[in-house]
Every structure is written in C-alpha cells, then in structure tokens.
Fold this sequence. Notes:
By secondary structure, the protein is of the alpha/beta class. Helix content is about 70%, strand content about 10%. The strands form 3 sheets. Strands 2-1-4-5-6-7 form a 6-stranded antiparallel β-sheet. The protein has a 5-stranded parallel β-sheet with strand order 8-12-13-3-14, with helices on both faces. A 3-stranded antiparallel β-sheet has the order 9-10-11.
Amino acid sequence: MKLLKAEITGFGKFENQEFVFIEGNQLIFGENEAGKSTLYNFIKYLLFGFENGGKSNRDFKPLSSKRYGGTLWFQTEEYQEVVLTRYNNQVNGVKKNTPQVTISDTGETGTAELLDRLLGTLNKELFTNVFTFQQEQLNELKGLTSEELEKSLFSIASTGSQQLFEQKKNFLKTANALYTPKAKQKELNQKMMELTSLEQMIQEKVAHEEEFQQILESFEQTQKQTTEKQKEYDVLFKQKEELRKKYENLENYQAWVVASEKAKTVELLTNEDVRKLEMVQRQAQKFKEDKSHFNVERERALEKEVGGRTKEFEFYQANKLAIDELASQSLEVVKLSQHAKNVQENLAENQKILQNLSEKWGWNVSLPPTKLDVEKKIWLEEQQKRAQRLENDFTYDERHYATLEEQERSVNQKIKNLQADYPQITEPRSAQKSSGMPPVVPALVALVLAVLMFFLTASPTKFILPIIVLVCGVLGTLVLNQGKRSSIPENVARKFEDLLQRQKEYIKSIEECQENMSEIDEERQIIDDKMVEFVEETHLGRMDKVSTILHSSSDIELFHQKLVQVGNQQTEMQKVEQALSVFQQKLVLVKDWVPLQNKTVEEQFKAVDVFKERMTDKQLEQKDWNSADLTKRIQEVNDGQQKFLIEIQPILAQYKLENIAEIQAFLEKNKENMQTKEEEKRLRTLITGVFDLSEKVQTTTIEENYVKVASHLELLQKELNELNYQEANARSERDRVLGDGTLDDLYQKQANVKDEIKELAAVWTSQMALSQLMDDLINEMSDQTLPQLLENASNYFSILTKGRYREIVEEEEILHLIDEKGVDFRVLDVSTGTKDQLIMALRLGFISNQAKNLSPIIVDDGWLHYDSRRKEQLAQVLVEFGKKQQVIVLSSDEQMGNYYQEYQQTVVNL
Length: 910
C-alpha cells in the first residue's frame, strides 16, 4: 500500500488541510507542536477507526469544525487509486466511524468489509508495531534484563516487533505471580498449604467419630443402590416407551400389512394409458352429443324454427369484433409459446451442461472457477515446464541410481570372489610380501654342503650327514615354494585395490544421486503446494493438475459462457411469461363461454379460435340449413361413429374391455388402485421408525409385553421410592451427626479451598501454556524467515554503522554481530546507540522480507535522537529503503532536513 494524499476536514489542529505524499522517501518537517503526531494519528484513525479519547489516548476532536475526520487516498498492488472517507460523527446520514470506500479504477464502493479486503493482512497492531518507528518502542527495551533483551531482539528479528515477546513475558509474569515451586507467599502456594492443613484436620476429626463413619457408609451404600435401581428403571422406561409407540400404532401397522399385500397385487395405468382411454371417452361422447344436437336441430327445422338463437350465439353476436380480435392473435400466441418452449429447452440444456461440468470438476455455480488470464496461463505453463524438467531430472537420476546400484553390486561380488580366492588379500601389503630369497637357494646350498661333507668327513658319518643336509635343503625349498604360492600376485592386488576404489566411488555417486532425488522431491512438493493454493484461490475444484487445467481450460470458458447464457435465458423466460400473462388476461371476456380450464395459454387461444369457427358455422346454419341437410349431417355422424368404433377395437382389446361403456369403470378402478398405493405409502410413513418393516411383527405379543413391562416398571417405581426414603433418612442421620458444625465447617472450607485452587491452577496453567505458545510461535517464524531476514538486515546494519559491522548472525536464538575484522560480538556488549541501529536494521530487514508492500514506513521524531554521524547513516538507509518502498519521516530535526536536501530527497514543511 502507498499513501497518495490526505485531506483533513477536521482533526486536532488541522482544518481543511491537504497533504500530498510521493512514492518513495520523504521528510515532513515541522517544529514541535506543528502537527506531526496529529498527521500520523489521522492516517491511523482513517485506516483502522477512531479511538475514544481518555487517559491512554489523545483526543483529536477539532475545536471549531463540525466534521471530525476527512479523506485519505492510497494505492494498492491491485488498484491505482482508492478513496477512503471516515468521520467520527454522523455526516450525510452515514453513522459515525463508518468508512466509505471507493475504488476509482472500477467505481466499486463499500464500507468496512471492502476496506478489510483492500488492506488484506494489515491491521492496526501490525501498522503500529512493525511499520511505525517510535521512541516509546526503544524505551520498552531499556528496562529489560540481559536475557530478556536477547529474547526481545530475537523476537524482533523473527516477527518484526517485540509484541509476541511482550505477550509471552506478561503471560509468564502472571503465572509466576500465582505459583512457583518452594515459594510460600504466592497465592496458589498458600492455598495448597491451607488445603493440606484442612485435610489433616479432617482426618483427625473423622478418626474420632466412628459413628459418623458407619452412618456415612450406610448413606453411600443407599446412594449406590438408588443409582443402580434408577439405571434399571431408566432402561425399562425406555423399553416401555418403545412398546407404547408400537401399541399406539398397532392399528396403523395392521392396516399397512393389509394395504401392502393389496398394493403388491394391483397394477396402475400409466398417464399415457389414462390419457388414451379418456380421449376415447371424449370422442365417443362427442359423437353422442353431435347426434343429439343435430336431431334437435332437425326437429326445429321441421317445425320451421330454424331462426331460433341460443344465449351462446347471442353472446357471440354481441361481442363479435372482440372475439374475432382474440382469434386473430392466436398465431402470435402460438409463436410466443413456441419461443418460450425453445428458450426453456435451451435453458435446460445449458443448465445440464453446467451441472455436468460441476459434477466433473467439483465446481459451484455460486462460486465459479476464476477465468485464466494471460498471466495465470503463463504462470501455469512455467509450473508445467518446471515440473516436467524435475520429472525428467528425477527419471534420469532414478535410472542412473539403478545403474549405479547394479554396478556397485557387480563390483561388490567381484571383491567377494577375490576375498574367497585370496583370504589374506585384506591384510596389509607389507605382510603379503615374501622373502626376496629364490626358492631353489636352500636346495643348492644343501647340495654343496653335502658334497663337501661327503669328501671331508670320516667314513662312519660319510653318508649320514650329507643325507641329512640334503633333506634339510629340500625341506627349505619346499617351504619357500609354499610361501611363494601363498603370496598374492601383484596384478591381483592391484585389481582388488582398484575394485575397492571403484566401490567407494559408486557408493559416493549413489549417495549424491539419492540427495539429488530428495531435492527434486522437495521441489516437486513445493510445486504441488503452490498448485493446491492456486486451485483453492481460483475455485478450480478437482481440476488440480497443471496439465489438466491447461488442456481443459476451455471447460472454464464454457462454464462462464453457459452461466451468462443461463442468466440471459432466465431473463428472457420471465419476459415471455409476462407477455403470455398479458394475452391470458384478455381471455376474461370469453371465460364463461369457452372451456379454458386446465389449458395452456396457447390451447386457450386455440379454443377461442374453435369457438369463433363454431359460431360462424352456426350463423351459416341458421341461414342455409334445412331438415334435409340436418338429416345428412346426422348420417355423417353415424358413419363417423361406426368408423370410430372399428378403429378403437385394438385399444379396447389392449385393456380387455368389451365396449366403451366399460372404460369409466376401468378408470375408476385405476383410481382406487392409486388410492391403495397412496394409503400404503401414508401408513408406511406413520410406522417407519416404530416397527421394523423388514421383519414380520407378532402383533399379538406387543400388548402382552407392554402390560408386562408397565407392571414391572410400576414395581420398580415402588422400590425406587423406598430407596429414596431410606436415602433421605440416611442423609438426615448424617446431617444430625454433623450438626455440631465442626466437621461440617471443615468440609465446607475444604470444598471452598479446592474450588479456589482449581480456579488459580486453571489460570496458572493457561498462562504457562500461552507463554510456551508465544515462544513456539517466535521459534517457528524464525525458522521460516530468519536466514533471508538477517541477510537483508545485515546490509542495512552495515550502512547504519558505516561498515563497522558487516553481518548479523543467529546462534541458539541469540543474535551476534560480526564486525569488519570478523570479530564476534554479543548484542549485550555494544553501545545503546548501536542497539538502536540494530533494532532499526532488524525491523527494516523484516519489512523488506515481505512479499507485498503492506504499508508505508512511518518514522516518528523520537527515533532521530542520534548524533550527526548516526543521523547521516540513518538518512542513507532511508534513501536506500525508499527506492522500493514508501517512507514517511516526521521530524523536527533541522540537521536531518539538511541531510535529506543533500541527498536530494523530498522535504515538506508543515
């Protein structure tokens, strides 16, 4: 949100005053009492409502203006201009403190509901504690301990303000005021000690009152018996009520059984069957009436009374022009009726399409899916491309993972094979190396020694010693050969080491592949979460896949198209029905002479047309008919009747009727059958829930069981009355023993103290739980936003401190400062001014970390009580921050005004 203009009609010292705000950074300069706080409060009151003046709130009621309030122009991300007017008194019939909102872009108007929608998540607390910078917020930090200060700063870094921390501290303070372990002066501690003392006194008192114990046991036993008997009574009473309902509806059940059996045997004619038989009746009746009519006319003609006129004919003659006019409109009514039928058919077809789309995608006509504009389609296509890329990457990694696993298994098997062939291969290489002596050396040395001994030794040992030496030489050669055979060839050792190295590489690659697949899964989950949010916002129902939305976007367009068509067709139907109603009102003239009942407007006009033709024919008959003509007409009617009787024979045979006279009785029988069905349905409705209709009920036993249960219930009532009497006596006896008041008072005090402990414990528990909840909320918010926030805040803090500190870091919920040399400082070890700068940086970091510009930044004069160097650095930060968000500084500091002019920033003088 960006402020555009404020027009103050009457607020504090301002009357008919206008302020214009620019998009970026600006300074509103004025001396003390110039109205800076008044302007700020005007903005706050217009956005969030007027506050009553009092001890904690200043009263800004104007001195002379009758109107208390004004108008505020602001801009949102969705709309270029929104006009908000609010007064704290009734103006032009609008109640006090009621916002009047107009969106200039669209012309839409509204009150509080529209304002809340435009402000979104921005409320008064967020506006005051996060987007407004005031000296009072610093003063609240000065009285904190070192631990509280560190927690408060962590809360500011996590949530943009110390409000959650303050709430946590207040909850904890309230809890500790009630109870702490080993304390003696706290209220809950004292009540617990008092309860312990009372319980001890009661135990001592009861121990000496054996009579009381016996009476108490008797009372409790009686109470238990009464409770059990009451449960038994309640169960039996429920059974009695069920039997009573069955007993009262027994006649209905028996009647239903009869009606049900009867209904199974009857067959009903369809509406088409009834219409067909009634048509035969009417046609037969018409032949009869025509014959009678022509016979009467012939008699009259014979009596030369052809000129006689009926009342019906006289009515026609008197209103001939009007009746002819009605008859002439018949064609127009037919066209209008046909148009209504076509519109109704199209309306039903479109409603069916809407219903099918709603069932297919889970849409709602009252909350239709949002149309996909170009921006949404581009976003969906990007999500689809991203999802496809992730799917391709995952498929590649999955195949690569399977290949690596197979390669690793192969290498592992080769390693096992070498270990099986060379068990000592896992020993160090130095232990595997054999002596450098050739294996034949011992045998050669032994041979030389044996020859020398043969020639140099005396005869007794001449053969023995050489043989012994030769044997030793041979054994030494065998030993060396064995050692040579047991050593590992160099190429095998190199192969083994190569296999081990390849195994490590495969394992590392497998781990990397698993990590990549896990990251891809996380990215896909993010896309899925975004899609769930998108589907909920756009009301797309079961159209929850990107590909489905893009491929079936025509359904969305069709849904909106049909909604418009249905609305237009419903409007058209209303117009047609109104037009037909006008035509129908014209028929009042002929209602006594033309059969209009149970006919549509089209049929009524056709009946008028028939009436006109009949009267015209009658007029001709009066002029031209004679007895011969009438005799001929009678013969024609007789011939038509005979032909008709032949034609209806198949119809009579279809319903097994002998003649036309049986049709009326047949139709009457069908009505009786319909009544039987209706009666069965009515009776079934009455007894449903009382009887199990799926099983046959033994009606003869219902009355017996009802009488039996009622009798048993009456006996239980007597027993229950007796137990109640015994319980009353036991209670009276107990009260008598307690009559001296001593033990009674102790029990009463014990109960009172327990109630007080329960209330205090509930308060203590709730306050401790709320304190923990605030702590958990701060930690959760920090996990989500803190890394990016600290990165942004570090940038602003570096500017504020002129590069002395380059980074803000967090470790175990404690903030640390890293200076330009890399030295780590705790916040407690820096100056008060640096702490002020840190809070400013954290707040700005939190605001810049938000996805939307919810509100402009408003800096009150109190935050500018820095030395000249810090003021200049603050001005630099606000210049930098003003490039992406609106900043309004309210100040009376001339030096700050000079810095703004030096940096070519806007300065407005009050």
